[in-house]
Amino acid sequence: MEAILDSLGGWLMRTDLGLGLLLVMGVSMSLSHVFALLANRLSARQILLRLLLDALILSLAFLLSSSIDMVLLSLYASNPVHPSAFIDGIAACLLPACFYVCVAAPYIGETIGFVIWVLMHLNVVTYVHVRFALPWEQALLLCTPGYLFAVLLVGLLFRQSWRRGYSMLASELGDP
Amino acid sequence: MNAPHAAASQRFNLRLLLLVLAIGLGLNFVGVGHLLLGLRRVLSPDDLTLLLRFSGVLLLVLIPAAGIYSLVNEFAFWEGWLEGLPRAEQLFSGHHASGSSHRCYVVYLDGIHQLERDHPPRVSQFLEVLEQQLRPDMLLVRGLETYTVMPVPLAEDAGSAWFWRRLFALQEHHPNLLVQLLAAIFVQANNVIKVGISSDRRYGPILNYELALKISLRLSEAGFRPDGVSRIALVGYSGGAEMAMGVADYLRRISRAPVSIISFCGVFSGNQVVNSVAGITTIVGTRDPVAAFGRIAYPGRLPLLPLSNWNKALARGAIDRREITGMNHNGSSGPFSEAFRLAVIQQITAALDAHAAAAPAQTGC
Prior knowledge:
By secondary structure, chain A is mainly alpha-helical. Chain A is 79% helix and 0% strand.
């Protein structure tokens, strides 16, 4: 147990940059839907808690998606990678998500979101292609499952929480 | 801001604006080219690429930031942080009969050029003629600030009054014409953002609901009562058409009266709920580039998305489209010009009659 904890501690220290970036991305994505929380008329404390929770879930989603990429690389491309180095590299590729807060902008927000998602995937594919000297097709194939997993998780969160917040007013208005 | 000053500010019509923007763009290209040549001497290509990327990122951040700031007011209302608008259920309570002889309330929603309650002179003249052409049982409700939620002008808006006052002062008194023009563009950009918010699926309901409350308050002051025989017609010009589409369903629910929409030179999305609207008429000019651009800017109106609210209404035959040959979006061949003013007013009154004839028992006008 002590050895496991030691290795986990060491890994966390080495990946602090990558993990920190993932957390920033989570916070940015979470903040982009702060108006949905406001529409629910939550208190400031509740909003802060929800923002933090959403940010952690989103960071976890990206961490899991990166882990899927890592496992697939090890299994199918026979490219063993050190987790801390990989997370650091992938987190840099996911940097466009730091601007996800701009998705809160009216009307152009959805387009910005779409562009950011496309950019992130292209960055990761390019990184895997360059770092592991894999052909483009193989890099795309190996990175897509993790990406789809992240899209699915964020989509679920959107459906369960944020969209409900946005439609709050319409349902509350009802028939006066 | 008084009427002559507003008149002066409105002299910058679209043609002048487009000309200045085209010249400005050309100058920018020349300037950027020279700047790059100069920078190339002191910076490496890699540094230049980095600089360009930083500029792009800055733009990516600044434009959404302006939009997000605009949302704050709407949500402040929704949260109840600001006073000013009544609750929907309190609006017409305690009023059983209006005592008014009017049966149709025609609400005019101006385009993005609107800066304050008073309309520009050309629009005022247009509305005076329209008022004369309306039947005696119709009342024109004008002077409604379409792009602010608060029932106060922008210059008195809580939180941003200092900014708007300075901008208006620059627009009216600055000796440099370019500064005046830039200030006017900033003011209109604020209205464009509001049109964007109205058409946004996430935030649109809140802005549209609040604007519907504001219109209801004004209608209440004008003598409207939900008596079962009165109806409301929203007449929107340019961006005002989007606001009309956005508020129509909420206004119908709040006022418990049939609501119809008449747009002229309208720029609007196809996202809004229009299936419960009593009638929709769009009056378009054959030489109107702005309204044509609106169809591209809002994919909901393109045939590519047949399930959009607008396209479904179109397929049902619920939309009456009327064309005016040779009419432009504004200027000397715009709807407020002497050349086309009467033609537009005739189409509006014909549409009002058509909407009334479609449901005579409901409308009473």
